[in-house]
Amino acid sequence: MGRRRQNNRKGNKKTSSRGNGEGGDSNESSSNASTTDLPFAIGTRVEVRSENYRGKSASSLRTGTVAGHWRKQKSDGRIAPYLVLMDDGMALYAHRTEALMETTVPPMEVTYNIGCRVECQLAEGEEISEATKWFPGTIIQAHHNWAISPIDTPPYFVRFDYGRERPFWGPADRIREIQSKDKSGRFPTLRFGVGDRVSCYMDSRWVPGKIVQTWYREDEFQDDHAAPYQVLLDTGGFIYSPMDDDDCIMKSTLPPPELRFELGDKVKCRVEGGWEPGIIANIEVLNGERLYPYGIKMDYNGEFVYAPCDNDMFIRKILRFKKGDRVECYTEEDGWVLGEVAETEVDDDDDFSHGQIIPYRVRLDNNDELFVESDDDSCIKYSTSPRVSRAEQNSNGFVHVVSRMLINNEEYEEAQEMLQEKIEVMRSKIKNNSSHTDVAKWRVDLSHFLCYMSEVHQASGSLEDMKLALVEAMVLTKLSNDKSKPHRLLDVTSKLATYATLNGDNRNALRYSEEAILLVKETTHGQDSFRLGSLLIETGKLNVACNMRERGLTQMSDGIDILGRLCGSDNKQVVQANEEYDRICEGERESDDN
After folding, report:
1. Using CA atoms, how far apart are residues 199 and 339, in angstroms rounded to an integer?
2. At a CB cut-off of 8 Å and minimum separation 6, what does 160 contact?
3. Which of 141, 184, 373, 437 is at a distance of 20 to 30 A from 263, taking alpha carbons?
């Protein structure tokens, strides 16, 4: 339904009525006759003089068009001077010129176009026995020059509602148009309404979808004709149902597919000028007589547009990463792996993608390519780890990258073994070397490895081992005087605050957090940073838990302001912090009321 099918009913071999013969060998003629001997040329309108042609007496059934000369009959092999295509579709072999008479009766005029709804009166003995009954159907082929076209080319080919497709030869008074509107100019009542779940019969199967418009029209439809329904299929395409009956469309009990976006989600939409950002303002919105999955308020002009279909051809998620960003991607074979975004919004060549795009193509550090099919933290996330060359693979940074990847993949034992080996090497070097410069460098390396080890212990739940590693790292850091000392102090102090929080020691967690805030301000020279905003929010919550509510709320508010300026008010962490801040304030008001 909704897609026109070409007529595959070839019948006998088709040839031009001005050329070779039909049904026999081409150019076959009598030895004692030629086409110039015949008075009626091909294309001449004639009337057959037979008194009982096919048992019909109506003159309209006795007229036809000369379609060929000197043709062989298949039944007995005789050569007939004339092949006449009768107006009812019958091919007649005329053996005597006297049996024909030229006529001015024109062939049936083709007045209806493809897609037009008609009803036909089928004659007695032609598949349907009720001669007076009108059978509705839809024209799927219309041949305006049918009378001088190849044999077996009817004026119309009709798909009847009772399930058959068949030619209709005429006469003209046995076909008439079905008007979509009734005599009062109104459309008749339909079984389904906009938004109803239905299944449509197409390509020999039932396909579920949703009605988005009733009495749907297209440009090629004739005046006053409309299809009962336009349907948005669950697979993403649009079709129309030419008839309102169970042969074409019926109620569906299958649940609808979930919409991809929610109210307030930021998206980008395809508009006349390209892709522009906006925000979902309505879901399942009726605009005029048409149902749309989304109404979107556009950022650039504040106007509303409507996405006709929930797929990436019309509306897309705004991606978090751009080309060149460093990311970590999850694979079933290797867990989390490092790479770089090589391409965004990749067209999916799969025939079954239904208008969807792949968010990212990532080039991994091992030069493999990975297609990331979902833009969420379970599949892809931001990475601060740079691409590491082979020469750098023994550096501290690379060791940290590998340990973090092993932690993400929950391979804790492998991470501990790797780091423990590095730690033992550094301890041995410090113990057996008297060079002050080398020892200072190795202390820095050892403090880094111990901090990495504390992360492994935290992830595996070994809190006491986490504390021991951090205490040793703090001692080593305080012994050093290099330029990176404030940064390493901040790293160790923040991890000690995390340890205390996990251990339920809010007082020490607060003490370490307050120290960390001062160290962040020192290392960033007082500039706003994501780390400072996050620390202020977490420290503020600790102050509230330790009954220093006013200081805690102030810190939370400052942290929310910093993150809001850096990341935007719709950032997930900012939204969660705002909600928690409001809950604390609401609890304070309720306490005051009591």
Report:
1. 44
2. 120, 135, 136, 137, 166
3. 373
